[in-house]
Amino acid sequence: MSEPHEDADLPLEPAEAPGTPPVPEGAQTQGRRTHPLTALVQGGLWAAGGAIGLFNAFFNGDGFGVVRGLLSLVAAVVGGLVIGLVAGYLRWRFTRYFIDGTEARIESGVLFRTSRRIPYERLQSVDIDEPFLARLFGLAELHMEMAGGSESRTTLRFLRLDEARQLRRVLLSRAHGTHVSEGETIPEEQRTVIAVVSPDRIIVGTLLSLDFLISAGAIVVLLAVGFVVPDAWALLGGIIPAGFWLVQIIGTRVIAQWNFTLSRGARGLRIERGLLSRSSQTIPFERVQGIAVIEPFLWRKIGWQRLSVDVAGYGASAEEESGVSDTTLLPIADPLLARAVAEELIPHSDPAVVERVVASPRSWVFAPIGWRYRWVAATDRTFLAQEGWIQRTTDLVPHHKTQSVALRQGPLQRRRGVATVEVHTPPGPVDAAGRHLDADTARVVALEQLDRARHVPAPPVPPTAS
């Protein structure tokens, strides 16, 4: 079957099968399939999963001889490939997507039909991922984020990359109320590049992170002890978990963030990254709920920071599905650049120009060293909270994005006359809390923040990129 070249409402397939849920009046009754190579990509993913599962069983101590191990590996790869091809074909054969005047819709299911509907007015962002195997065939998957909870993400696998990009432009245009006629090709939005994080900086930053140094140091120590100390070979078993930790760090911080590019458009920021698998993520300005400015211990010596962001609708499910954190706004940045990006998304949030409420000296029993680095403050637009002496974190929350405020005081805190103020945002890296403040001061801070959340309006939207 030939594929369409436009992302408009093109009737390519027969009408839906009986039993399909009814569609809204005036909506399409014919849809389009994803790319036929979806089955092949799915088979490759299942084969890789079988091989990884076998290696995991081997490292967990299951005994394998050389011949048995090779036969098991071949069986796992071939079996995974066959099962994946069958499952992928059925998924491709019984999946259609519809782009009509009121909503996007995905119909799927072999025995039980499912209709997932995305009204344009609830569509928040559309992201593109290129998993490594799909990228070899020029394919990509489309992630559609709706306003909602943990089930707000809908994924369409797999489309040609140019088709996925065009479909993203169509969906975003309709989500913003722009009429797109049938067959119309929408040009790519003009964007301004804010920052490009070079691979060498990402590698150096990873090498200077404490968790990388700890895992690498643990491997070196275990090897040295195993070779030097008699009867200490059992310690070499600890190399496997340390090695997995090291591989995970490299995968998430180097490979996944390779050629990290942050750009600005009319509707938000766009993040493009990845060495083996590429992703293109859009963060609308209005969905930013808070920013965490993170300064690891060794990074502070050379003036580097990391920015993470709370985005409405991005929960744990989105990160688990993609395998990459959707919350990284800048993996490494100089303070000047980090301050400029944070100020663009959350105006009037500079911690250097505010009067701070510090933790009470009576709280030293909870953090003998760290209590000196805890404080909260507020500007006319933003609530700020900082803590940490090994890894320092400054959380920024716009007043109008505050979901709730909590004042907590445990038994030991009551005895010490201190309390904790928490400013709640959606689940994510931001944890804005003033821990162990003087109890009376903490109550004042909580009431003042509630008042700001009710009365401080949202700032104007950043200007359109030229």
Automatic annotation (TrEMBL):
YdbS-like PH domain ranges (all copies): 92-169, 262-320, 371-436
Claim: Transmembrane helix is one of the keywords in the record: yes
Transmembrane segments: 37-58, 70-90, 207-229, 235-256
Native source species: Aeromicrobium phragmitis
Keyword line: Membrane, Transmembrane, Transmembrane helix
Residue ranges, annotated region (Disordered): 1-32
Record carries keyword Cell membrane: no
Pfam families associated with the record: bPH_2
Protein name: YdbS-like PH domain-containing protein
